[in-house]
Amino acid sequence: MTQTLSDLFANNRAWADEIEGRQPGFFTKLLHQQTPQYLWIGCADSRVPANELVGLLPGDLFVHRNVANVVVPTDLNCLSVLQYAVDQLRVRHIMVVGHSRCGGVMAALGNLRVGLVDNWLRHVQDVRDRHRALLDGLSADRRVDALCELNVLEQARNVCRTTIVEDAWKRGQEVVVHGWVYGLHNGLLEDLSITASGPDGVEPAYEAALAALHRRFGDG
């Protein structure tokens, strides 16, 4: 349903009143603290509202979003968020979260020309090319779903390989990296079981999660 900008301000007032009614003084307290335990790295898709999906209020979840939830060492925006979350906020969990029927993944899979974002999606095409043997054996719909999940595994591993996370682990800081996928069709999150809490666990977690993905999609 189309809404005017005045509707959005009215919705905002209603939301703020509801929060304040449930927790008097909530926003005053929020001014003086930001202590989230979680960093969510997800897709910019408007159908994936991070806080709402996991039932967390403002202040509980630090969020970075971009097209197709990509994490690469040349993206200073993402790395700045990651560094602030790990070094300053001391988050304990980092979740890379993809979602089914991701438009960015679909464009990368089909070599669709969209515009400037085509250059960004080259990173997802690299994932596609790396796992071509699996993807080529799947139907069109399953190919999209598989690449969405493969992209999560690759990006979660990329998080683990950043100097930020590596340095945190080296100094003994508790940081656990996870890879999840969100189903637009049912509203549920699924843990893809790529979970790493130290440098020695990254590759075993990746290989185990990749093997499980192959089994789910009928290849071994």
From TrEMBL:
The keyword Metal-binding belongs to this UniProt entry's keyword annotation: yes
TM region(s), chain numbering: none
Keyword Metal-binding part of the UniProt annotation: yes
InterPro entries hit by this protein: Carbonic_anhydrase, Carbonic_anhydrase_CS, Carbonic_anhydrase_sf
Domain of life from the UniProt record: Bacteria
Pfam families: Pro_CA
Cofactors (names): Zn(2+)
PROSITE patterns: PROK_CO2_ANHYDRASE_1, PROK_CO2_ANHYDRASE_2
UniProt keywords, alphabetically: Lyase, Metal-binding, Zinc
Catalytic activity reported: hydrogencarbonate + H(+) = CO2 + H2O
Record-linked SMART domains: Pro_CA
Listed EC numbers: 4.2.1.1
Gene3D superfamilies (UniProt xref): Carbonic anhydrase
PANTHER family xref list: CARBONIC ANHYDRASE
Function text: Reversible hydration of carbon dioxide.
Family per record: Belongs to the beta-class carbonic anhydrase family.
Protein name (record): Carbonic anhydrase
Organism encoding this protein: Rubrivivax benzoatilyticus
